[in-house]
Design goal:
Elements lengths: L2 H10 L9 H8 L10 E4 L2 E4 L3 E2 H7 L4 H10 L9 E2 L1 H10 L3 E4 L21 E2 L3 E6 L5 H10 L16 E6 L2 E6 L4 H9 L7 E7 L6 H13 L2 E7 L8 H10 L12 E4 L8 H15 L2 E2 L6 E10 L3 E10 L2 E2 L3 E4 L2 E9 L8 E2 L4 E7 L8 E5 L2 H21 L6 H9 L4 E9 L2 H12 L6 E10 L4 H10 L1 E6 L5 H9 L4 E4 L2 H12 L7 E17 L3 E14 L3 E6 L2 E13 L2 E2 L2 E3 L3 E6 L10 E9 L6
Parallel strand pairs: 2-5, 7-9, 7-10, 10-11, 11-12, 22-23, 22-24, 24-25
Antiparallel strand pairs: 1-2, 3-4, 6-13, 8-9, 14-15, 14-21, 15-20, 16-19, 17-18, 17-21, 18-20, 26-27, 26-33, 27-31, 27-32, 28-29, 28-33, 29-30, 29-32
Helix pairs in contact: 7-8, 7-14, 12-16, 13-16, 14-15
The protein binds guanosine-5'-diphosphate.
The site of guanosine-5'-diphosphate (GDP) has 16 residues, from helix 6.
Length: 628
């Protein structure tokens, strides 16, 4: 295929609607949010809309008088005014009543390409290889299996190829391909998910036949389930005399992973990475599962996917492994990765072979980006440098704004607010407790609190300390962690803070249930508690023209900051509560002063200070724990 042909074809099918001209689709990228005509239209008897609509907007779009709509709704017992916004169900009902089929379409401008829901016409889709991640307990043989699969039946090296570690590889098997991510373990998997990227279709859970289900096996199961990936079990080390696959399957059943021969639907394969036995069955099982999953993609669109790994190569500059998840990436394409952009100058596969084009599920190492992206960043290819540059710049701006605005993680207060807007919501919870009994009891009782609006999902309920891995899972799944009779250690607390994950610790089960119930009913109020952030002693009092009375002070503890809440204490009696008005060191105004330094302080609207008074600064923070 000539480059030009490929280009046109891709452009034609780019986006949701195949009957749009390439020009329109392109302009859709540059679309500004207030271009109204795109929000709703009738397309071949199907009413397509993308945003909530008012009665009058719908009336115009489906060419039906407003009165007729209001009259119909009235007959259904709904009193609705012209400018009232209609919900999706009502729009659907009205369309059917007035003779249209309907479809809600998510229109995303290219800046937010991670949210792009690709909804290509089924006739454009082609089968794509499954993407597999290998997980399991340490030393159970994950790396050995990844290596052994790579080298099974390699009928001579590919021409010119030198095997390279690029983070993933493709294995050909019975005329089909399987893409294997070669960083094993759930840490990388979940870290990626925490960044919003989900690349794995199938998780191969490795369990050593002589060791059975171990703590990280269980963690891996939780992580795979939370991600919605399919699980295939590889019972490894079958060459060892102590191998006992029946025991492994029994132990897995206790974790709700039920093998086919035990009446469940999980494929299990007995293998030995050492002798190579069973690896072909494992590949067969992966392909069988993939077939059942009907994994498809449209190769005729610009590529979209995820960065698997990236580094700075001394000779070649920024280098990244991209997993193409949909579409085709061609040498010369312009791509936006995270907030940077570049032109694909060179693209090689895991065998070091240069590729001109790479289709869905292919991992490729690329050169040509302006900077090193981060693993888990999403990428998308664009037809022109101009578009790529604009999108990258818009994304960089958005990222800055987000950083200013804090995180997107959900807190109990956020959930409570969502409930109050009437939206249906999942509430994901991770339970850790001192005993398995309490964890299970909490899980059962928490799940019972689900109602029509909030579905409570306990992703994990186990005995044991709250770990980094729990925090990552919580971050990836927007979950709240409940600790019962446990206190997270400082490192985990720090991690939770970084990931903006809320950890709540309690010593009474009932109080946890009460709190969650309040959230579910939209009646939760964060209990605030006071945290002293600094204190200073007033050593002398003086006046400055235009400023007023200044407290020459010495900071005893913490820091004193301008604008912070504070109180003035004299002989243990609080005589003023207000704010720090200004701070000065020598002649300079400063924003804050730390322990061990002298400074001049003025209080907001208060001048009656004395030597020996204490100024105490404090802030109100959400109470983290009760009785713990
Ligand atoms: P990982 O930590 O899960 O990646 O485990 P590795 O692949 O590093 O394997 C851990 C140890 O188990 C190594 O010493 C391997 O040689 C050994 N091992 C892996 N697979 C097999 C197997 O099928 N049979 C036997 N006997 N040993 C194995």
């Amino acid at each position: 295929m000539k480059k030009g042909e490929n280009f046109d074809k891709k452009q034609q099918h780019y986006g949701h609607k195949k009957n749009e001209s390439p020009k329109m689709r392109q302009s859709n990228f540059e679309q500004r949010p207030n271009k109204k005509q795109e929000l709703a239209k009738v397309n071949g008897g199907v009413f397509v809309y993308s945003k909530p609509l008012s009665v009058s907007e719908l009336s115009e779009a489906i060419n039906t008088p407003i009165n007729a709509i209001i009259k119909y709704l009235f007959s259904q017992g709904k009193m609705i005014t012209i400018n009232q916004i209609l919900d999706d169900d009502t729009i659907g009902e009205l369309c059917l009543e007035f003779g249209y089929d309907f479809k809600k379409e998510k229109v995303v401008d290219a800046t937010h390409f991670e949210e792009l829901e690709i909804d290509d016409d089924p006739s454009l889709l082609e089968e794509r290889p499954p993407v597999v991640t290998v997980m399991g307990h340490v030393d159970h043989g994950k790396t050995s299996i990844i290596d052994a699969i790579r080298h099974t039946n390699v009928a001579g090296k590919e021409a010119g190829g030198i095997s390279q570690a690029i983070g993933a590889y493709q294995k050909e098997w019975n005329g089909k391909k399987v893409t294997i991510i070669d960083t094993p373990g759930h840490a990388a998997f979940t870290a990626m998910r925490a960044r919003g990227a989900s690349v794995t279709d199938i998780v191969v859970l490795v369990v050593a036949a002589d060791d059975g289900v171990m703590p990280q096996t269980i963690e891996a199961i939780d992580h795979a389930k939370a991600a919605g990936s399919e699980i295939i079990v590889a019972i490894n080390k079958m060459d060892l005399p102590g191998a006992n696959p029946v025991r492994v399957k029994n132990e897995l059943m206790a974790q709700e992973v039920v093998a086919e021969d035990f009446g469940g639907d999980v494929l299990t394969v007995e293998v030995s990475a050492k002798t190579g036995k069973g690896l072909d069955d494992l590949l067969d099982a992966i392909l069988l599962k993939a077939e059942m999953m009907e994994l498809k993609a449209n190769p005729n669109r610009y590529a979209i996917g995820t960065v698997l790994e990236a580094n700075l190569d001394k000779g070649e500059g920024p280098k990244a492994t991209l997993l193409i998840q949909n579409g085709t990436l061609s040498q010369g394409d312009y791509v936006v990765v995270g907030t940077i952009y570049g032109k694909i100058r060179r693209m090689v596969n895991e065998n070091g072979v240069s590729l001109k084009v790479a289709g869905p599920s292919t991992p490729v190492s690329v050169i040509g980006l302006s900077e090193v992206p981060q693993a888990g960043d999403r990428f998308m290819a664009f037809p022109s440098e101009k578009q790529a540059k604009e999108v990258a710049e818009a994304r960089a701006l958005k990222k800055k704004e987000e950083e200013r605005g804090g995180s997107a993680a959900l807190t109990l207060s956020d959930l409570n607010n969502i409930v109050n807007t009437g939206k249906i919501q999942d509430m994901n919870i991770i339970v850790k407790a001192d005993t398995q009994g309490s964890a299970e009891s909490l899980k059962a009782n928490l799940e019972k609190l689900s109602n029509d609006q909030v579905r409570i999902k306990v992703l994990e309920a186990r005995a044991g300390a709250i770990s980094d891995s729990d925090v990552l899972l919580a971050s990836a799944s927007k979950a709240i962690i409940y600790g019962f009779n446990l206190r997270p250690d400082a490192r985990v607390k720090e991690k939770a803070k970084e990931e903006h994950v809320e950890i709540r610790t309690y010593r009474i089960i009932y109080e946890i249930l009460e709190e969650v119930e309040a959230v579910v009913k939209g009646m939760y109020k964060a209990e605030l508690t006071e945290k002293v952030t600094g204190s200073a002693e007033i050593r002398h009092r003086y006046k400055i023209t235009d400023v007023g009375v200044v407290a020459g002070s010495y900071v005893l503890d913490g820091t004193i900051k301008v604008g912070e809440k504070c109180r003035l204490i004299r002989d243990q009696v609080v005589i003023y509560e207000g704010k720090i008005n200004s701070l000065a060191r020598f002649k300079d105004r400063v924003k804050e002063v730390s322990k061990g330094y002298e400074c001049g302080i003025t209080l907001h609207n208060y001048q009656d200070i004395k030597e020996g008074d204490i100024i105490e600064c404090f802030e109100m923070v959400e109470k983290e724990e009760k009785n713990a």
